[in-house]
Amino acid sequence: MTTAPIPANRAPIRALNAGWGALQRIGLARPALTRDSLVRSARRQSGLTDLGDDFDDPVTREALSRMLEALEDEAALHPFGRMLIRGTLVRWLVTRMRLEQLTRDHPEIAPLPVDRPVFIAGLARTGTTMLHRLLGCEPELRPLLSWEGLSPAPLPGREERPGQPDPRVGLARTAERGLRYLSPEFFAIHPVEADGYEEDVLLQDGSFMSPTIDATLPVPSYSAWLHGADQRPMYRYFRRLVQLLLWQRPGRYLGKTPHHLENLPALLEVFPGARVIVTHRDPVKVVPSFCSMMAHARRLFSDEVDLAHIGRQFRDKQLKGVSDAMEARQSLPAGSFLDVHYASLMSDPMKEVRRIHDFLDIELRPETIERMNRFRSANPKDKRGAHRYGPEDFGLTREGLDGDFAAYREHYGIERES
């Protein structure tokens, strides 16, 4: 059940769910979440048919099958949430078809190198968003923009309208306005802006090995399968979309997501030569902050927001992330990684930026420093409102989190926050 820290949906959404739910209970107006229905809709929407050879391989078939079963049986989607999920799944399929069409029409995309990419891979809520946007001021780096993440492939006919605004930007602004209406408080936790930088998960999700579904909804059977699955097929699909983006706008790719932390061997195998920046922060702050973000997100799709369950789920998920990373780094090249502590990043961000530029072999030029300083001045902490949370909101305790993450804290010398 939803409790005080998570506001209820707006009245029009509650009314829509009530009326739509009544229709669905008598077998009417229920959006289908089946493979065939989704594929038919994506083909109608795109005017294309080819989903690529890997869409029918055993890994992708199993991933999609397990996801759809869990969404149907476990996610407790309310009617509006079911519609949102269906639209999202169709969009992923449309992206796949456009990727296949473009790589056939432009054979130069497939062999395009992804040279020395940079990935930020700390736990969620460890300063990754701030660091991502600060490093995005560096002209040599090429971050993923939110509108690109939603629509990585140019829309049909786009190349015939040079100089005109890209319609994908308008679509992303519509999505941003929708999220602001549905959950204005979410922007105090994680700003989602059409022109801003966004997470690599937006590109990874279309593999159907989806970090977003895993994190946003209660789908335990899918999550258990996903965490035990070989992630290399997902990373290979992700790399194809990075190539597609670099074909449109070249540069040294700059990505970020906490999901990389659980999958460092796959990341470095698929992106040889990558540099990985790992951020660290007191888990007593990190875990409940991420729980709060995911609880707000979950409410968009379901009326069943069990805060204690969310607390257990994301304590375990984040503990798995740091444990997997610690183990993996014992056998991966030490020179591929740079550790950045949240406390240092907050107290002297430009000092950390200089360390990072040295690590990346990029000259930090005065004009870049000026851009970064302007960004910092325009984006002070809590610009969009304070984000309030505590372990107790999610059935957790400071002492319990301290014990759970003791090995991680000791290994990296992570300071406690008050």
Strand composition percent:
5-15%
CATH class of the domain at 114-154 and 167-412: Alpha Beta
- Give the CATH topology of the domain at 114-154 and 167-412: Rossmann fold
What's the end-to-end separation, in Å?
Answer: 30 Å
N-to-C series of helices and strands: HHHHEHEHHHHHHEHEHHEHHHHH
Q: Main β-sheet: number of strands, strand sense, barrel status? A: 5 strands, parallel
Report the CATH superfamily of the domain at 114-154 and 167-412: P-loop containing nucleotide triphosphate hydrolases
What is the β-strand count?
A: 5
Strand order of the biggest β-sheet: 2-3-1-4-5
Mind telling me the C-alpha Rg? 21 Å
CATH architecture of the domain at 114-154 and 167-412: 3-Layer(aba) Sandwich
User: What's the number of helices?
Assistant: 19
> Uncertain segments of ≥5 residues (pLDDT<50)?
none
Helix content: 40-55%
Shape: globular
Structural key phrases:
single chain; 418 residues; mainly alpha; Rossmann fold; five-stranded parallel beta sheet; 5 strands; 54% helix; globular
